Prior knowledge:
By secondary structure, the protein is an alpha+beta fold. The chain is 28% helix and 39% strand. The chain is built from 9 helices and 29 strands. Strands 18, 21, 22, 23, 24, 25, 26, 27, 28 and 29 form a 10-stranded antiparallel sheet that branches. Strands 3, 5, 6, 8 and 9 form a 5-stranded mixed sheet that branches. A hairpin with a 4-residue loop joins strand 24 and strand 25 (446-456). Helix 1 packs antiparallel against helix 2 and helix 5 (161-174) packs across helix 7. The longest helix is centred in the first third of the chain and has 40 residues, at 24-63. The N and C termini lie far apart (142 Å).
Amino acid sequence: MKGTSFLRRMGKLRSREERPAESGAEGRQGRKRTIRITWIAASAGLIVLASVLVGAEKKYVTANTETYYKVMVKGTEIGTIHEVAELDQLFEQKREAYQEKYPKVEMVLQTSGITTEAAKDYKPEIDSEATLDKLDGMLKAYAVGVELVVDGKSLGIVKDQATAAAVLEKVKAHYAPQAAAAKTTGLMKTAASISAKTTDTDSSKVESAEIQEDVTVVPVKADPNKVLSVDEAVQMLTKGKEAPMVYTVQEGDTISAIAKRYGVTQAELFRNNPDIKELTLQIGDNLKLTVPQPDLTVVTVEQITEQLVTEPEVIVRKSADLAAGKTKVVREGQTGLKEMQYRVTKENGLVVKEEWLGQAVLKASLPEVVYSGTKVAAESTGRFAWPVVGATLSSSYGERWGRVHKGVDLVSSNRNIKAADAGVVTFAGVQNGYGNVVIVDHRNGYVTYYGHLKSISVSVGQKLQQGSKIGIMGSTGRSTGTHLHFEIRKNGVAVNPLKYLK
């Protein structure tokens, strides 16, 4: 309004100054032009003023407009924050918290589906703290690991590839003598306590140790509580889970040995197999067991070297100075020493195959000399020869590797069976367990057994010389295949034939 008054005053002044020169029509036209100019100037002033006011308002709004960020979870807004860096900081803190909680595994924060969207607004209401608190409660994490898989079955999850490799190596070592020296040595000493004296030089060497199954390693996301350490994984894979199985009785098995081997009680064996009796246990019988069965099968091939104390030969000589039936030891015998070598194949520590590789005499025994006042028609030499030519030992004597065996099992392409020493046949026929068997009394306290024969070539009372044919190797009785079961008994007690065979 002040601008308008100013223009009006200026118009009146100008009219007074020009009025004397104006007259008539010309004066009126001049006044109209003056009024028009005045209004134009006034309008221009208003426009300028409006522009100034609008510009000021824009500056004010701009000064109070703020950029912020919407936080979206799977497309849904959960709140706003001032800076994206606030979100990154939350992620890092949360990741560190999870890693601190599970230090033995590598933790990964799940941030997929969390996005930000930039926005601008006039004096926006932003509550970063509430938004981040809400998001903090929604954040989860998982462990990265690798899964051991056999035939599509998961055996467990460990930290990484290196850990998986370490687990498999330790599983193999669990069944190897170096990793289980006490276990292996214990078995060997048990055998020695029955079969012969052994020395501290007994040893075993692993030729190979391999996992039978094809194990694959697959990267996975996992619950950190289910990721196993090396020791936990090894224990799980070697212990196994209890499951039913059927065990087929083999030569030399006893209820007590089977129970010990599988870690069950004899009472449990009898309870699950009511028809089975200790004294009537037969080769080929099936026993129902519920025992832990590992998911992995470790096949170990071991070469075992064992030093064996050998018994002296007994040399019997006639003496006219002794009464009939009397004997006299004129020189005590001395024991010898020989080294035996075996190759044993095991599956998870249980023997599935045994091979005799050979023997070497380290110290010869000194024969015992006995004078006898009675001459027998078939006089024993006191030395035992191998009853089979080209023999290979398939099962050794004694309580070895979980079985009790009263003799040795011999196989050969030459199936003729010969008398190990001179003597008299006291039995030739069928006996429980032995099938066709020949028993020879050597008349010096020793008796030999020849079992599982296909056919018998001698009869009771027949006098034999060392090397006389007894029969043909077979698989009669409780036998797992064609072989000779050979025993030596001294004064009625089974002894280790390997201590006497030359």
